[in-house]
Amino acid sequence: IGILFMVLRLSKVKKKNKEQSVMISSISEMSNIDKMTGCFNRKAYDEDISEIRMDSQFIYVSMDVNGLKIINDRQGHAAGDELICVAASCMKTRFDRYGKVYRMGGDEFLLFLPKVNHEEAENILSNLIQQFKEIVQNDHEIQFASLSAGMLMTTKNDHFEDASSKTDKALYYVKQNGKNSYSFYNQIQYGNE
pTM of the prediction? Predict the structure, then answer.
């Protein structure tokens, strides 16, 4: 009877430990998710980049929503939040199977895409920007909103700080030249660095 009691007690302890492990894992996952958009958050980004080997190539994208300040000023922050959620949903729908979408704050997003090549990424990004524009065109209050993106295919020499800086430059180039588009970072366009 003593051995049977110990076996039953150990199985209960194992079950309880497994339940606690699942609960801790769920809490950890929740702490890495942006509550408003369902995208990964800055904490998840920081954890992920600390584990990624930079000797492999991947597509890195900086993206943001154009016109958000005007919408917040005219219609309130709830309308602005809804626009951010629509943009995030479009990004996740298009890119989730290729990598991760992170909301870094406000209307700023980063996409880390190790499972897509340059041509596929450009095609998907172009379709995403067009899809978002079609969605907002149906509402005259926000029809001026759009997405802009800067994109980079990393090399073995790039570090995350370099990748982030280069995609930001590509993003700002788009924002200065008409928005509602994307730019692929290259040395010719931005000079040697």
Answer: 0.79
